[in-house]
Design goal:
Its cofactor is pyridoxal 5'-phosphate. The chain is α/β, with parallel strands linked by helices. The chain has two domains: 149 residues, Aspartate Aminotransferase, domain 1; 239 residues, Aspartate Aminotransferase, domain 2 (3-Layer(aba) Sandwich), CATH 3.40.640. It has 15 helices and 15 strands. The protein has a seven-stranded mixed beta sheet with strand order 2-10-9-8-7-3-4, with helices on both faces. Strands 11-12-15-14 form a four-stranded antiparallel beta sheet, with helices on one face. Helix 6 runs parallel beside helix 7. It starts with a helix and ends with a helix. The structure holds pyridoxal-5'-phosphate. Pyridoxal-5'-phosphate binds next to helix 6. Pyridoxal-5'-phosphate (PLP) binds next to helix 6.
Length: 396
């Protein structure tokens, strides 16, 4: 699908629909007159096939306890195999209501209280919240920038893993907010490090369908033909890809049978989160018939990225923009044009934009903003004009 058709057919007004991103502005930012480009969901309806499948299911009218049909596994496994070469097996798979919920559950069964868990900052802030809420020790390794590109600092990781006896690493692949799609070599290096240091890896692959650049996505499951699988739990969901977050359905993939038993035992104590009926109906339809929709969405995001990058860097050559290899989240360094500690006030109060501020992702993010590109070109144009105007007035 081309991007004009996509926007015309799928763009939707979300204000006054109880959308956190639009109707939760006051609660988060203390103002409701901001243009929201924060929460990672989009202003687009799900694919038509998804809506039709849900309507059909709703019209049936009875919502008693339900099972996951064989067709669900077929649709999801075919999607993963045909697009990424990932071989999945039904017995590896468990369902959750969301990736963050599953992350918490997995950390609970993989580690004990006070055990150390590592993240690579700047990173999606619920990782830190989940680790700390579970009374685990948070160990931070900052990504480093080499020639303007974020890379993992493996030496720093090794040293901190040993110094803190880290038990688990939470990997974000692709990486929110810096937009990296890790290469096979990078993934192999970090998985090998974790194997040597006896550190389990939780790979959050929720953004894996949102590949914007040329580098293909490779799952941690596929590295060296599955060599690291025994050490690995993978989390993913159709929610970012198809804008289904509120439908509460996600995947936990545990190839190692011993780890899986431990997961099952732990989840039994919680009386098992198992996804949701309508979430599964939606996901099955999306995996079966959503590819063309996704191609259109990716074109919109790419065009939005190009627009923002061109306009901002033309107006202010000192603004640095990370390449968007994956995700629909743009990571922008404003520290070349404005003091780091003035970014929040300027963006919120002068430009009237609600974005994710860089320091939410860790101290390394101070001076950055994360802009959500999963919206209409019209919103993006408004946001860029407002940001440029505010920065110019500041400099005048
Ligand atoms: C890396 C990452 N993991 C998880 C989530 C949220 O997943 P869920 O809504 O399934 O908890 C997000 C949402 O932005 C994300 O960026």
């Amino acid at each position: 699908m081309d991007k004009e058709t996509f926007v015309k057919e799928y763009a939707v007004e979300r204000q006054n629909t109880d959308a956190v991103k639009w109707d939760g502005l006051e609660a988060e930012f203390g103002a409701s007159d901001l243009l929201p480009l924060w929460v990672a969901d989009t202003e687009f309806k799900a694919p038509k096939a998804v809506l039709e499948a849900m309507v059909k299911r709703v019209e049936h009218g009875a919502f008693g306890y339900s099972m996951t049909p064989a067709a669900y596994f077929d649709a999801y496994f075919t999607w993963q195999k045909e697009r990424y070469g990932i071989e999945l097996h039904k017995d590896w798979l468990r369902f959750g209501t969301g990736v963050v919920q599953s992350l918490s559950t997995v950390i609970q069964f993989l580690t004990e209280e006070n055990d150390a868990v590592m993240v690579m900052q700047p990173v999606y802030y619920p990782f830190m919240r989940v680790i700390e809420n579970n009374h685990r020790k948070l160990v931070i390794s900052n990504l480093k920038q080499v020639d303007g590109k974020y890379v993992m600092d493996l030496e720093d990781m090794r040293q901190k893993m040993e110094a803190n006896q880290v038990r688990t690493l939470v990997l974000c692949s692709p990486h929110n907010p810096v937009g990296r799609v890790w290469s096979e070599a990078e993934l192999e290096a970090v998985l090998e490090l974790c194997r040597q240091e006896q550190v389990h890896v939780i790979s959050d692959e929720i953004h894996h369908d949102l590949i914007m650049g040329k580098r293909p996505f490779v799952s941690a499951l596929s590295i060296k033909d599955g060599y690291y699988r025994d050490n690995l739990v993978v989390l993913d969901a159709p929610s970012k890809t198809f804008n289904l977050a509120a439908l509460q359905n996600s995947h936990v993939i545990i190839p190692n049978p011993q780890l899986r038993d431990r997961y099952d035992e732990h989840v039994a104590k919680l009386s098992s989160p198992a996804g949701s009926l309508l979430g599964k109906v939606a996901a099955q339809a999306a995996y079966s018939e959503g590819a063309d929709w996704l191609a259109g969405f990716i074109k919109v995001v790419q065009a939005n990225f190009d627009y923002v990058k061109t306009k901002l860097t033309q107006a202010f050559p000192a603004i640095k923009v990370s390449d968007l290899e994956g995700t629909y989240l743009m990571w922008i360094d404003l520290s070349g044009v404005i003091a780091k500690d003035e970014v929040t006030d300027l963006v919120k109060k002068q430009a009237k934009l609600a974005v994710d501020f860089g320091d939410w992702f860790g101290q390394a993010g101070l001076g950055f903003i994360r802009l959500n590109l999963g919206t209409t070109p019209a919103n993006i144009e408004k946001a860029v004009a407002a940001l440029i105007k505010a920065l110019k007035e500041k400099q005048a």
